[in-house]
Amino acid sequence: MYQWSFKRSKRDDRTINLMIAKAEKIASGAAPLRKARFLKVTGAAKGAGPGHHRPGAAAGCGVTRLHALIAEHAPPQWADLDPAQAAARVVVGIETDRGPWVGALVGAGYTVYGLNPLLARYRERHSTSGAKSDAAYAHLLAEIVRLDRAAHRPVAGDSPTGEAIKVSARTHQSLIWDRTRHVLRLRSTLRDFFPAALAAFDELDAPEALDLLAQAPDPDTASRLSKAKIVRALTAAGRRDVPARANTIRTVLTAPELRQPGPVQEAYAAIVTTEVALITVLNTQIERLGQVVGEHFGAAPGS
Questions:
Q1: Which run of H or E residues covers position 245?
Q2: Closest to 195 measured CA to CA, from 215, 222, 214
Q3: 113, containing H or E segment
Q4: Which of 71, 89, 259, 283 has the most crowded Cβ, counting Cβ within 10 A?
Q5: Does residue 227 share a domain with residue 119?
C-alpha cells in the first residue's frame, strides 16, 4: 500500500535542509555546539528515563497506525463484510519477505508480497534516473502489486516451526556459500606461492588439510613437517590407509619447487593462516547449524 503527500514531502525537505545548515554552521565554528538541538521531543516522551524507548513498542504503534489508515481509506461497501474478508482484499507490497512487520501483516489477513523495487525492469517504467527515493520506491511497490502481482508469489503465513526452518536453513545456506568463497580465496593464494599444497590436499576444507596448513602455512615450514604430525592429522580426521596417505603428502610437500621472496612468502602465509582459521570456524558452525535445521525438520508435521 502507498500513501504520499506532496505537502508533507516539501515540509520534510525543508526541515532536513535547515538541519544541514545548522550542522554546517557548527562545523565551521559559526555556531556553538552546546545549545544545538536537532530533534524536538514533545508529549509523553518528554521526561522519559533511559531505556524508555522500546523498538517493539514503536513497531506495534506503527502497525496500529497502518490498520487505522487502511480502515480509513477502505471502500464504503467493505463495511458490511466480515473483518477477515475485508482484510483479505488488502494487498501490501513490502521490500522483504520476513521479519516482525511481515509476520504482523500476514497474521492480520492481508495479502503480502515481498518485492525488490530495485529491479531495473520496474524502475525503468517510471524513471530513467538512478537516484534513490523512498517515496519513489513506495510508489513503485504499489504499482507492482496493482499491475503485476500475478507474476509474483504472496508471502505465506508459516507456522512457528516452518518459520524456524526457513530462518535456520537460509542462514545455513549462507554459511556454506561463505565457506566456498573462503576456500576459493585460499586456493587462489596457494596457487600463487605454494602449489604443492594443492597437489597434497584434494579438499582444502577437509579437517586434515586445515590442521596441517595451520601448522605449516608456507612451503618452507611444510617441508619440515614430520610424518608423525601428518599421521596425527589424518587419524584425527578419521581417514583410512593413514600411513600411505601420510607418505604421499610428505613426498609432495618436501619436493623441491620454486619459492617466492621471503617477505612475499610471509605475507602469503599470513593470508593462508587467516583463511584457514575462518574456514575452520565456518566448518564448526555449519555442522552445528545443520543439526538445528535437522531438529526443526524432524519436528515439522509430514517430514
A1: helix 242-254
A2: 222
A3: strand 111-114
A4: 283
A5: no
Cell output for 167:
530462518
DSSP 302: T
Q: Residues 67, 200: one domain? A: no
Domain total in the chain: 2
Domain, as residue range, for 228:
163-299
How far apart CA 277 and CA 270 sit, in angstroms, is: 11
Tens digits of residue pLDDT in 152-197: 888 876 677 777 777 888 888 889 999 999 999 999 999 999 999 9
Q: H helices of 50-159, where? A: 55-73, 83-88, 100-107, 120-126, 134-147
pLDDT tens digits, 109-159: 888 888 875 565 666 666 656 666 777 777 778 888 888 788 788 887 667
Residues (pLDDT < 50) of the chain are: 1-2, 41-53, 55, 303
Nine cell digits for residue 295: 531438529
Q: Give Cα 49 distance to the centre of its chain.
A: 33
Three-class DSSP category at 241:
coil
